[in-house]
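so my prof wants the structure for this chain in the tokens format not the other one, which i didnt know existed until like an hour ago. anyway here's the sequence
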Amino acid sequence: MCRDIQPLVKPVNPAFPLDESLYCPEPEEIAFFKRQTNIQDEVALKTHIIDVQKEAYKVAPYACIRGFEFMHPNISKLHIYDRILKRGSEGAILLDIGSCLGIDVRKAIDDGFPANNIIASDIEEAFSELGRKLFKSSSEPCYFISGDVFDPAFLSVTWPASSVPEDVMPDIQTLRSLNNLRGRVGVIHISKVFQSFDEEKQLELARALGGLLSCEPGSVICGNHAIALEKGIVHLTVLGVDITYFCHSVESWTTLWDGVVFEQGQVMVETRTSTVDVGGIGFCLLHWSVTRL
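here's what i got, hopefully its the right format
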């Protein structure tokens, strides 16, 4: 069987079966969920998380849901996390693209980033309610806005900012479009999203995010996603299904930002790599940041 699909975040139809053996959170993640949910018994906590996982998988059968990736913070594992928190103390806006069930925004808030300066966004509006159910909260920890990053009315491609906007900063609690944030965002986090798209769409998304980023030195776009040794199409077989998807290499990803999205020398690109298992699938993961100079 062959499907031209992306295995990490794009829905697979029919969905691969859920597998509770993939539930293997780290001790610090268990401690975080205990604080957030106030469920102290680990058996009860696991049951609660699996119940929400089943609901989320019906909404969007992503491999990151199947593999409990929604439990693992991405932003706090980045090499620039201390810099991100510092930007928060300076009043920067944090935009989390592909926020899923909200683990990264909640982790950032837990570590001191001001909640009123955080915006979470995902194409799946249902993730907002499911995130509240997962963390047993009655309200969002920050502002959530659903939308398609390839819908120009929601997020369009524009040139990177060359100056600080002179008009009044919009109230982020009433945003209906990310376009209102052009040149104003101090931190953009986007993990396990880019590998969902082909090369052309990855460039389009990168250009659109580059237009949102503030030109102030230290402003940063960061995240992680699957990477290949050489830029091109990757082929995998998962549970008997042949899967193909596009991956950049470290070198092509660096060039994409420093020289294509931004003029060469405007940004500093930093990268790290690791090997991870997502839902029983092994990947080389790129942890990256693009910082305005």
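also thought this was worth mentioning. The beta strands are 2-3, 94-97, 118-122, 143-146, 187-190, 220-226, 232-238, 241-247, 267-278, 281-292.
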